[in-house]
Each structure stands twice: as structure tokens, then as C-alpha cells.
């Protein structure tokens, strides 16, 4: 890596941590720490939700899946808008009315403390394992680039995340996500431009798209109902709907994002957009 590469890498990581710590300052009570004082506007809620869902694994795996199997996997997300509408109509106002800090606190009021404890433990185990994979994916890439041991790279990334997460709470995480997602979208747009410009002179974007379609890589919608087919319109609408409903409606990593909205309206807009 050149000196400029090091400056960009270190500067980016330091900016994320510093920005998160700075925006998370003033979180002095439980509501401020866990729910950002219920002060987030809907654009911050929306981008934080998207950044939470789109982990490094998403950006590392989906291009390869699209290359090898086409765009069939996008049907998995067709049930997402329906799930968001249901959550906005039912879950968001219920959580807001009960003024809960977590989705599992609602379960204690609805059932008992044992149910809350069970679901909390399951969430912590699941999210702990998921966070490990989320850290490992970029650490693996960086370890190859930097020539470091992947274990130390994972630990270094984990320390940086822990710093702004523990010092600023949900507010720090949400604002850091806001900045991260803007950078992600900008770099994706730049990568698209560079890819198009790197095509041979005699091959344009439309030509490349037609070739991908001829090779079966543009198969984004399959109307055929087949229980043995993982990706089709119906599996996306039905299975995707219930999966996204459970994830965005009960997983605290997402519930905590929209519970931090300034109002029910901001929480709903954050989910919908």
C-alpha cells in the first residue's frame, strides 16, 4: 500500500470513530444511551436501518452470487415493503405507546419475565455470532491487503467499533451509520462509473446488459411457483415477508433504530424509506 492508501484507510476509520463519539456525546441516561433520547429524524433512522441490514458480508457475497446465479436472489426482498407496511401499522405504535426500550421488554409486559429473558438470551447469542462474521468479512480482506494476521485485524476492527458504540450508545451508532451509508452509496456509484468506463470501446453498457441477459444473469423475476426453488416471486413474497417481519419487528438491532425516532411518524418514515 502507498502512503496515500494508508492516509485514506486510517483517516476513514478515525473519522468514523470520532464522528460517532462526537455525535453521541451527552447520552447521560438510559433513554439517551439506548434510544438516543428519542431524538433522531427519519432520514437518520432510515439510513441507520439500511446500514444495519447491509453488512460487509452483503457487499462481498451478493456480487459473487449475482455473477454465478444471476439476479434471482433479489426476489427474496419482494416481501420487504409489505412487511414494513405491517410494522408501521401495528408494531411501531404499540412500541411507542408502551414506551419500551427493547422489543423484549414488550414481551415481559405481554407474557412474563421468563419470556423476556429467553428471547433476550437468544438475541444476544444470535447477534453475537452474527457480529463475529460481520467483523471477520472485512478483516479478511484487510488482512490480505495489509499482510496482517486475520485474528489481529478482526480484533483491531472490533476495538474501533466498541469505542464509539460504548461511549455514545445508539445515537453514536445511528449517526455513524448515516455517514457510513452515504460513503457506501458514493463509492458504489463511483465503482459503477469505473466499471462502465473500463468496458472495451466496442462494448457499451446496453451491450453488456444484453450479454448478461443472454447468459441468464438478468433473471430477476420468476413467476413459476415451485416449492423446491429457493428464489421465485412467491417465495419472495411469502417467505420474504415473514422473514423480514420477524427481523425488523423483533430483532433489537433494528427495533432500536426506529424506537429512537422523534415520533411515531419519524419511526414510520424511517422504516418506509
Largest sheet: none
Tally of separate domains: 1
Task: Give the rounded overall mean pLDDT.
Answer: 87
The N- and C-terminal alpha carbons lie at a distance of 38 Å
In CATH terms, what is the architecture? Up-down Bundle
Number of helices: 12
Question: If you consult CATH, what is the topology?
Answer: Sodium/glucose cotransporter
Q: Work out the number of β strands.
A: 0
Specify the overall morphology: globular
Along the chain, the helix and strand elements come as: HHHHHHHHHHHH
Beta-strand residue percentage? under 5%
- Give unreliable regions as ranges: none
Classified in CATH, the superfamily is: Sodium/glucose cotransporter
As a whole number of angstroms, the C-alpha radius of gyration is 21 Å
Secondary-structure class: mainly alpha
Instruction: Classify the helix fraction into a percent range.
Output: over 70%
CATH top level assignment:
Mainly Alpha
GO biological process, one term: sodium ion transport
GO molecular function, one term: symporter activity
Main location: membrane
Subcellular location: Cell membrane
In short:
The chain is mostly helical and 273 residues long. The protein has helices spanning 3-23, 30-35, 42-53, 56-69, 80-98, 103-110, 113-146, 150-197, 205-214, 233-250, 252-259, 264-272. It has twelve helices and no strands.
What does this structure look like?
It is a single chain. This protein has 273 residues and is mostly helical. It has one domain (3-272): Sodium/glucose cotransporter, CATH 1.20.1730. It has helices at 3-23, 30-35, 42-53, 56-69, 80-98, 103-110, 113-146, 150-197, 205-214, 233-250, 252-259, 264-272. The chain is globular and about 65 Å long. The model has no long low-confidence stretch (mean pLDDT 87). Belongs to the sodium:solute symporter (SSF) (TC 2.A.21) family. GO terms for molecular function: symporter activity. Keywords: Cell membrane, Ion transport, Membrane, Sodium, Sodium transport, Transmembrane, Transmembrane helix, Transport.
